[in-house]
Every structure is written in C-alpha cells, then in structure tokens.
Amino acid sequence: MSESWTTPSQTVGPFFRHGLLWEDGPYAVPEGTPGGFWLTGAVFDGAGAPVPDAVVETWQADPDGRFDHPDDPRGAVARPGFRGFARSATDPEGRFRVFTVKPGPLPTGDGATEAPHLDVSVFCRGMLVRLVTRAYFPDEEANAADPVLTSIDDPAARATLVAAGVPGGYRFDIHLQGEHETVFFDL
Amino acid sequence: MPNPTRLPHTYRRDAPSHPPLDFPGYRSNALRVPHRPLVLLPQRLTEITGPLLGEERVGAHDADLTAGHADEPQGQRIIVSGRVLDGDGRPVAGTLLEVWQANAGGRYRHDGDRHPAPLDPNFTGVGRTVTDAEGRYSFTTIQPGAYPWRNHDNAWRPAHIHFSLFGTAFTQRLITQMYFPGDPLFAQDPIYNSVRDPRAREAMVARFDLGTTVPEWALGYRWDIVLRGKNPTPLEEEDDDE
Questions:
Q1: What is the ipTM of this complex?
Q2: d(Cα B33, Cα B14) in Å, to the nearest integer?
C-alpha cells in the first residue's frame, strides 16, 4: 500500500502528569543494578529558560548491545531487570533524571558500528510533534567512528549529542532552540 | 545465509500528516522548537525496536475511568473504542495506550489548571489499556468539557482526550488527541488546525457510533489510530552477493 498518512501528532499539553507519570518511570533498570548510573539533565527553551512541563523518554540496547524485541534480526534477548525504557517529567527547574546502564555498541548492518547511545524523545506543552535526539557517552573511543556523530560536521553541534561525566553518572542538557540548540533528528 | 544484522524493515517517514514543528498560531510554540533543520537519522536497530510495554502497566480499573471512586463521576458516560493499525492496515497488537483528559466541566486534576470549574471527586481522568490481537482497545469514561486557555482572545480548547501510544518501534511512538464530531470550537483552535491536511485533521475526530452505545448507560464513539507503516527490507540488493 502506498498510502502513508498516520494519525497526526498533537501536543502532550501541560497536564499530562497524571496520565503519563509512573512511579518507576525514571528506572530503565532497578536501583542497585551493577553499573547503574543517573543520567540527569535539564530542558531549556529558546530564551534559555528551563522548561518545567516536559517529558523526556529514553530507549536503548542492553549492555551487550541486544534488544528484547522480535524485530532485532539477531534474535530477541531478554535481560532480567532491564526495561531499556525510561520516562521522566521535568521539575520546576526543567530537570529530568533517568537511572540506567550503559548500552553496548550496535552493528549497523553495513559493516559500521554505532557507539553506545540512548535514543531520546522530548515532549512538552507548545511542541506539536515530539523531538528526537541521541545521548552518547564522553568516555567512548567508539564515538570517533560512529556514523551518526561523524555525519555532523559542526563540532559544536556534534557536542550537543554527547553527555558530560558528572559524579554518579552523566549530564545531558537539552536546548530546544537558541545558541546551544541540541541536534534533533528526523527519523 | 541471511545477514544477522540486516534489518527486517524500516518505518516510512510520515511528515505530511503531522503538524509543522513551527506553528506561530500556537503561542507557546515560539520558544520551544528548533530553528536548525532536523538531521536525517537512518533507522537502525535502536529505531526499529521499542519498548513493548503491555499488561504489566495496567491496573484493574484502568480501562474504566468512571470506576475506582466512591461514586459515579458527573457528566455524560461514553465508551471510546477503536483499533490501532499501522500504515499498511495491520493491527498493532499488545500495545499500551495511555489516556488523560479534563472532567465534564473542562477541568484537569492538576495543580496548574486554574480554570474555575469544579473538580470532580469521582473522576481522576486517567486511563490505560492494551490492544488485543486485532489491535482493538476500549475505554469507558465521561465526555470531557471544553476549557478556556490564554493562547488568543477568547480561546477555548475543543473537548478532547489525550492519547499516548508506543507501537512496536521507537519510530512509531505517538502522542495525539482525539476530538468529538461537530465541535463548534474547531475553527478557532490552533492545535487542531496545526494539522494542515483536512483529511488528517478529520482523522483526529471520533465518530458517534450507535452500535457501541450501551442502552440506558453510555454513548459510543469509535476512533481508529494509525501508526507508521513499514518499508520493505532495506539494502536488499547490496547484500545479495553474500
């Protein structure tokens, strides 16, 4: 079928907290998981102000670079205690937090390897279509050969996709607009 | 020998049915959308997979927003049901739907909602369910009210229910709103009208359905949701010599 329309995206609005927030939302893995860390950050608007009504969601491979998913051509691999998905609302200062473990590298299918990364979605009041970005890790040599990172010529733009190491984990700020605007993807 | 990393498919890009990122008529949009063009991200393993969340997220009363309180909520009881399909018409089975909405007076149970309509002690306005093998879902709830907001002079949101869906891949994730047929507020609502294609706009409007109306109890509305469809196997020719 060539028909390609889908139900349109609409804003999450300001009042999603009851509907979308789960008590265990920020935990891609349970507290106490070996290698677990907090990925924290804040969402900022074009005026540099924090966005207090955003939802940030992350999705990732497990530490072996596997997914518990039937469309992974290498086969689905379940890892006990690993959900791979996390969801956090921002607080009045625009901050979100996600507890997870570092994913493994991934084969691209054409001989290249993607460095460890999280796919990240951002929703908020004022945003009609979700934004998508990726969070990479600063301590990964594989970043130098990652096909997504290396496709972005401007070093400052590329740097927006790499989290910073902080005590207890990493920090990944998201700038929706402006001088430090995060690279967002069309997928 | 099949290539163990060759993806079974990708998902079609679907921009024409969606609003533009930049839509000045929606006031709070101005500072919250990127000004640089989006970078094309090839769909690979992370994008063609996604969280397969289902029954474990759903509690006993979650598909009935009128239940779980001491008494019945105020307002017109309705049943909203339909199917979740992909762009190829295939049912999306076992996927989590989350909904949230205002009460009959147009007020959300949220600290930030300043609309001076009463809160309803018997209505929280939050539901969850999972599609069955044919992609079907159903919620029992009450008809939400319209409410004012400050986007422009005398601005009111048409009555709507927020829907969140995961589908089976990160690319299929969708948050949208379901509207009610014949709403006189459509013409002045920038969120509804941010969708430029009239057919796509109408696809956000449920239809009244006497067939799912329950006698002496609840009115029925039908609303189908379409997530992205699949592209066939990419890179087929390039890998043929392996």
A1: 0.97
A2: 19
- The predicted model scores a pTM of 0.96
β-strand partners of B114: none
Mutate to test the interface with A, among B46, B176, B226 (most CBs of A within 10 A): B46
What tokens does A59 get? 């999705």
| B85 touches B91 (CB < 8 A) | yes
Distance of alpha carbon A136 from alpha carbon A115, whole angstroms: 7
Residue with tokens 């130098």: A144
A57 within 8 A of A85, measured Cβ to Cβ: yes
Q: Give residues 106 to 145 of B whose Cβ lies within 8 Å of A.
A: 108-110, 112-113, 124-126
The residue of B6, B13, B49, B97 whose CB has the most chain A CBs within 10 angstroms, and thus the best one to mutate to test that interface, is B49
Instruction: Please name the amino acid found at residue A97.
Output: R
Which run of H or of E encompasses A121?
strand A117-124
Q: Give backbone dihedrals phi and psi of B151, rounded to 5 degrees, phi first.
A: -65, -40
Give Cα separations from A179 to A47, A170, B27, B193 (angstroms): 10, 22, 21, 30
Residue A79 CA to its chain's centroid (Å): 20
Cα-Cα-Cα-Cα dihedral sign, residues A187, A41, A43, A90: positive
Q: Chain A neighbours among B 39-98 (CB < 8 Å)?
A: 39-53, 57, 87-89, 98
The nearest alpha carbon in chain B to A123 belongs to B175
Structure tokens at B174: 């969708």
Q: Give per-residue pLDDT as tens, A36-93.
A: 999 999 999 999 999 999 999 999 999 999 999 999 999 999 999 999 999 999 999 9
Evaluate if residue B101 carries a pLDDT over 60. yes
Q: Exposed, middle or buried: residue A80 (CB in 10 Å: 0-12, 13-18, 19+)?
A: exposed
* A127 close to B176: Cβ distance less than 8 angstroms: no
CB A146 within 8 A of CB A115: yes
